[in-house]
Design brief:
single chain; about 200 residues; alpha+beta; Aminopeptidase; 7 strands; globular
């Protein structure tokens, strides 16, 4: 049975129950980070890699669904986004990256062209997620820097993102360490509990 909706907004649908991954699944935080790789996921990628990215996105959604701090935030049709990944981001001028440790999928992130007035020169980071068992390998940092590098190479002048500090304090700390600074909402009205960031390139 599908999980409940991510929020009360009418255009949000449910996600399938996320799989549970622990330290018995082939990697631990003590593993050598040099065993990790970052892979571009495109519509031409192998089906198993695409499915790994979709599983990670479903876990991201299930995590936020379970956090009371995020209950008031509308995430839109995340199940539809997951089912269409990576096309859901390719259609928005972006893409998806997958982090692997050995042969195991360990994290993901997506990006798109910022909707609205900044679209000509900016990207937006979305859905950064690292499985708990793989934390401590700097995968979140590597995934974020990979998008920053791609944005700079594409001639973008800024990268934006938003986060829910109360639900994801580790992500907030990471973004600050990388050099993101608080900014005004950049793609519409502000949501309570959401903090907006930008990093100029």
């Amino acid at each position: 049975m599908p999980a409940p909706a991510l929020s009360a907004c009418t255009h949000t649908d449910g996600l399938p129950p996320a799989k549970v991954y622990d330290r018995a699944n082939g990697y631990t935080p003590a593993m050598d980070p040099r065993e990790s790789t970052i892979v571009d996921i495109t519509s031409a990628s192998l089906p198993n890699l695409i499915q790994q990215a979709r599983d990670l996105l479903a876990e991201y959604g299930a995590f936020l669904q379970a956090r009371p701090e995020a209950a008031h935030v509308c995430f839109g049709s995340l199940a539809h986004e997951t089912a269409r990944l990576p096309l859901s981001y390719e259609e928005q001028g972006g893409g998806v990256l997958l982090a692997q440790v050995g042969s195991e999928a360990a994290g993901m992130v997506a990006w798109r062209v910022v909707p609205g007035p900044f679209s000509a020169h900016s990207w937006e980071i979305k859905r950064l997620w690292v499985r708990p068992a793989a934390r401590g390998l700097a995968l979140g940092r590597r995934l974020t820097h990979a998008i920053l590098d791609r944005a700079a190479a594409a001639g973008r002048r800024a990268v934006y993102l938003d986060t829910i500090p109360a639900a994801m304090p580790e992500a907030l700390s990471l973004y600050r360490k990388i050099g993101f600074t608080p900014c005004a909402p950049y793609a519409g009205e502000a949501n309570d509990g959401v903090t907006y960031f930008v990093k100029f390139l």
